[in-house]
Design goal:
The chain is an alpha+beta fold. It has a single domain, classed as Beta-lactamase. 47% of the residues lie in helices and 10% in strands. The protein contains 14 helices and eight strands. The strands form two sheets. Strands 2-1-8-7-6 form a five-stranded antiparallel β-sheet. It has a three-stranded antiparallel β-sheet with strand order 3-5-4. A hairpin with a 4-residue loop joins strand 1 and strand 2. Helix 7 runs parallel beside helix 10. The structure holds 6-diazenyl-5-OXO-L-norleucine. The site of 6-diazenyl-5-OXO-L-norleucine (DON) has 10 residues, from loops. 6-diazenyl-5-OXO-L-norleucine binds next to loops.
Length: 325
Amino acid sequence: LISRAFRHQFIIPEFQDFCKEIEEIYWKCKDNNNGEVASYIPQLKRMSSNYWGVSVCTIDGQRFSIGDVNIPFTIQSCSKPLTYGIALDLLGAEIVHKYVGQEPSGRNFNELILDHNKKPHNPMINAGAILVCSLLKTVAGPEMTLAEKFDYTLNCFARLAGGEDLGFNNAVFLSEREAADRNYALGFYMREHKCYPDKTNFKECMDFYFQCCSLELSSDSLSVMGGTLANGGICPLTEEKVLKSESVRDVLSLMHSCGMYDYSGQFAFKVGLPAKSGVSGALLVVIPNVMGICLWSPPLDPLGNSCRGVQFCEELVKKFNFHRY
Ligand code: DON
């Protein structure tokens, strides 16, 4: 880092100026009072609608954050691209995509549908993510117990985050499991259609899915994960290669087309960046070869995306030329 600084070789050379612009957008979005905090479980419902944090981590490890960046929140659906990336790394795309497709579903993230091959449409919606959870268990290498699989995944997530603290919110896990009629319905529907690999332990697979959603972290840590994805799988802080670059390419491709629920098409059009949102109000945005950004604010729009998060992205590409096209 220091030698690059001396050579002025940073990807964002005028980082201080860049941060000032980010700050300006931050304050503009703070005034946005639209949206509702998710209320299907009490632990999410209790979150203040005022929380608003922005964290940035460039591929060369320059960092900036503003707002509520140290308050832990659960990762929820932002875990989906990460577990998908881990599955790709373990098994390769060919095997993973025998079980899950690559098409946007054009429907709600938890809708009871499969594609015309009787596979879940993609790994960014609930059905696809549940399926990916079953792959980590039954196809990968030596059979892992649920405990081993949880450890393995937590460890991968922590390495993606450069070793920063990750937690697990047991109350959220228990509530998710209680409030999961639809997810169970999806799980059973896929079992009816023989979507899972042989020997899948259905109950453990569902639990693992709820556990992945219940991992807890701060906006700073999620931005480092985004930085690792932006950097082809090499963590900008530790320089460890956590995911293969081809896995990262696949993850980003599907974040681009499917990461923002039923707003994915419009988001790809307006913002043009791979992103994934979660019901806790987290929004993970990747600017490939430049930086990862985490935006976190609990109020969600009717499609389920963080209102302040989406506004931030739209303002960002007005100011900077980050749209891929
Ligand atoms: O499966 C659920 O309902 C949540 N725990 C995850 C929801 C989420 O963030 C929506 N994602 N696609």
